[in-house]
């Protein structure tokens, strides 16, 4: 990779499977697959594909608070696994959820009162994940130890919802789809395909450039090579030449300068599954529309322009497998770019996530990534 980096980004790489125990992940956990973790105060959403009416599967979750903002901030990306919907942006959804520290404290106080009223139900506590990664933010020392229950649970009779309050951070409330004439069709949670969950570790792209022999990066690269059956690294001084030759061949074969630029940029870390650069420049896989700035709509809530925030990378495709080993689950894409409100607008006390904009590019030649 060239010494002059256009702009730095945060690189996300899969870093080990997530166990099946309750409480292994929280809304501040960066992860692939599994089920989304609710931000305190946010209601569960029934995410449905508008093309085929199928339920959307959870693809990735990142915790990404902004600068000096008082809000915790989590992004969740969902996609339809119906092959007929591949490559269509309508089959994807990106949701932004936020909550302030005061919101968390109020919910915890509410939960505490509820527990005092129902003494026969023991209260379980959960430690904050010591190694939870975030995107450029240091953990705060005054974070609560557990996720509070949502207002929906609090509005029900205490005796009926005490146990539900304990599970509010990770349970899925009955998935209901409103049909014509006000009818409701209940969808069992088993009907929602789930990908095997993995933690995402985060590194600065500049660190990868400066520390090619970084132990953690080398370990992840070795795992990638073994999993994919490819040899990305060369031996000795021929390493850089081998990488350059590989991508020169890719360019000659594909004949696309944008594609070649994409491949060269990720060549130092081909196993990256996510790139994060708030208000930065995305890496397009193929030539984007000339009017891309007009293609990305303004925020539907406050009217502010949307800016690029992060994108899903091709290496993620091979990691997406069904949690059910007896059932195949496939999702195909090249790269998925997520644009969010520049102001990250949020109404305090809101319990509904804000939907953001995605731009999907199909992989022009999937075998070049194998």
Automatic annotation (TrEMBL):
Domain of life assignment: Eukaryota
Residues covered by the Programmed cell death protein 2 C-terminal domain: 256-361
Membrane-spanning ranges: none
UniProt record, GO biological process: apoptotic process
Cellular component terms per the entry's GO annotation: cytoplasm
Alphabetical list of InterPro entries matching this protein: PDCD2-like_regulator (IPR052815), PDCD2_C (IPR007320)
Name of the protein in its database record: Programmed cell death protein 2 C-terminal domain-containing protein
Lineage of producing organism: Eukaryota, Metazoa, Chordata, Craniata, Vertebrata
């Amino acid at each position: 990779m060239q010494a002059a980096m256009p702009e730095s980004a945060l690189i996300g790489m899969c870093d080990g499977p997530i166990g099946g125990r309750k409480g292994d992940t929280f809304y501040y956990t960066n992860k692939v697959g599994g089920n989304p973790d609710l931000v305190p105060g946010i209601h569960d959403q029934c995410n449905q594909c508008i093309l085929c009416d199928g339920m959307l599967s959870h693809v990735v979750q990142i915790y990404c608070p902004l600068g000096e903002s008082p809000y915790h901030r989590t992004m969740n990306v969902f996609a339809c696994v119906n092959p007929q919907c591949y490559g269509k942006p309508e089959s994807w959804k990106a949701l932004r959820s936020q909550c302030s520290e005061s919101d968390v404290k109020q919910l915890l106080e509410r939960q505490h009162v509820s527990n005092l009223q129902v003494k026969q139900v023991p209260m379980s506590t959960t430690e904050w994940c010591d190694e939870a990664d975030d995107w450029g933010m240091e953990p705060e020392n005054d974070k609560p130890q557990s996720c509070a229950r949502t207002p929906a649970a609090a509005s029900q009779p205490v005796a009926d919802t005490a146990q539900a309050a304990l599970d509010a951070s990770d349970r899925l409330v009955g998935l209901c789809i409103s049909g014509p004439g006000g009818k409701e069709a209940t969808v069992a949670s088993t009907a929602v395909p789930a990908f095997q969950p993995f933690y995402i570790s985060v590194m600065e792209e500049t660190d990868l450039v400066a520390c090619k022999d970084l132990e953690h990066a080398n370990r992840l690269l070795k795992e990638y090579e073994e999993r994919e059956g490819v040899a990305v690294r060369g031996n000795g001084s021929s390493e850089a030449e081998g990488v350059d030759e590989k991508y020169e061949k890719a360019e000659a074969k594909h004949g696309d300068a944008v594609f070649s630029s994409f491949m060269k940029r990720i060549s130092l870390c081909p196993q990256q599954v996510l790139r994060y650069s708030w208000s930065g420049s995305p890496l397009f896989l193929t030539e984007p529309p000339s009017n891309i700035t007009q293609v990305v709509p303004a925020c539907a809530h406050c009217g502010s322009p949307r800016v690029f925030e992060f994108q899903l990378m091709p290496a993620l495709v091979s990691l997406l497998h069904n949690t059910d080993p007896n059932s195949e689950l496939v999702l195909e894409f090249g790269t998925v770019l997520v644009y969010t409100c520049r102001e990250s607008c949020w109404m305090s006390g809101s319990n509904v996530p804000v939907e953001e904009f995605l731009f999907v590019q199909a992989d022009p030649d999937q075998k070049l990534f194998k």
